[in-house]
Specification:
alpha/beta, Aspartate Aminotransferase, domain 2, Aspartate Aminotransferase, domain 1, 2 domains, seven-stranded mixed β-sheet, three-stranded antiparallel β-sheet, 11 helices, 40% helix, 13% strand
């Protein structure tokens, strides 16, 4: 139950990928023979599949190694491209470190001035606060679609409308949202968006950046040089098998994502209800309804999360983002929501996905209740 950290490659996705490791191993940039043409065609098919899922044109998709690189390209690339117009960027406190750390680096180098907005108790940033923060120097607003720890969904359409009115671009880290909730760049007024294939049952090591080409046309300077791949925005030999897998995963998400989301909501609610019936002193983090289908963030009073994780060796869970699990610092997301430190220390993230069943939910709920009861008795 740690599907927010990563997902298994779906067998149908793997089947699409396999031929491109050995049989169809061409370089998509080789334009002088059939091996290259074959690889290039596969990449363009995948580009179209990703674009269709988000309501974009294929030429607006730039393949990267994942959402972290896509975030770096979007933030650094926009700041560099719009330097004559302004240097102000607005974000919010619960962003992933792949956004916050990039902006911190830009600020340290004197390339940008950054405003980090607070969120409410559910982790939602106010469109009014974004509007108030924007100035004539604001070139970019970066707000994630879905939080990776507490699952909260942001009001992207409203935020996008604010950005349009203020003349700023809206970038969205949509790594957790893609394939799990409806995400459409036109409906949500998004100008740039970052994705990772491994969050929606595709392979690791491949992602994409959506870059709007009209109304408005987004200018972007590359951060990698050497070959001019991806319309000059991302140099480097394309990961053809990975891109094929990303496209296949996107196609499956478009066809099956809505039904799977409904199933995951049922499992999530069953898990939450069972745990809360069996234990006192449990607090649910994030928005009660506007959240990722499979996300459940619970804080257990009088408990250390690490102790609970060690007691549940046969259950894959986490105390927060996989990207920051090597640090000992309290979650910046929970701090931003105002969760008391004692409760934050006892927080567990459940990430339900395609492989989970009602039997899993019943087993995990029983195991969690037993472990928490035992650990509290030892205090």
């Amino acid at each position: 139950m740690d599907h927010h950290a990563t997902t298994a490659v779906e067998p149908r996705v793997l089947a699409r990928m396999l031929p491109y490791f050995c049989e169809k191993f061409g370089n998509a940039a080789s334009r002088s023979h059939a091996f290259g043409w074959q690889a290039e065609e596969a990449v363009e098919v995948a580009r179209g599949e990703v674009a269709t899922l988000i309501g974009a044109h294929p030429t607006e998709i730039v393949f990267t190694s994942g959402a972290t690189e896509a975030n770096n390209l979007a933030l650094s690339g926009i700041v560099a491209a719009y330097v004559k117009r302004g240097d102000h960027v607005v974000t919010q406190a619960t962003e992933h470190k792949a956004v916050l750390d990039v902006l911190l680096a830009l600020e340290r180098r004197g390339e940008a001035h950054v405003t980090v907005l607070p969120v409410d108790e559910y982790g939602v940033v106010s469109p009014e606060a974004v509007a108030a923060a924007c100035t004539e120097r604001t070139v970019l607003v970066s707000i994630m679609a879905a939080n990776n720890e507490v699952g909260t969904l942001q009001p992207l359409a409203q935020l996008g409308a604010v950005c349009r009115a203020k003349g700023a671009l809206l970038h969205c880290d949509a790594a957790q949202a893609l394939g799990h909730v409806a995400f459409n760049v036109e409906a949500h007024n998004v100008d740039l968006a970052s994705f990772s294939a491994h969050k929606l049952y595709g392979p690791k090591g491949v992602g994409a950046l959506y870059v709007r080409r009209k109304a408005p046309r987004v200018s972007l300077l590359p951060i990698l040089h050497g070959g001019g791949h991806e319309r000059g925005l991302r140099s480097g030999t394309l990961n053809v098998p990975g891109i094929v897998g990303f496209g296949a995963a996107a196609a499956l998400a478009r066809l099956e994502g809505e039904a799977e989301a409904a199933r995951e909501v049922e499992l999530r609610e069953a898990l939450r209800d069972a745990i809360m019936r069996g234990l006192d002193g449990v607090h649910c983090n994030g928005h009660p309804t506007a959240r990722l289908p499979g996300n459940l963030s619970l804080s257990f009073a009088d408990l250390e999360a690490d102790a609970l994780l060690l007691s549940l060796r046969d259950v894959a869970l986490s105390s927060g983002s996989a990207c920051t699990s090597v640090t000992l610092e309290p979650s910046h997301v929970l701090r931003a929501l105002g969760v008391p430190p004692a409760l934050a220390a006892g927080t567990i993230r459940f990430g339900i996905g395609r492989s989970n069943t009602r039997e899993h939910v019943d087993y995990v709920a029983t195991a969690v209740i037993a472990a928490v009861t035992k650990l509290r008795a030892l205090r």
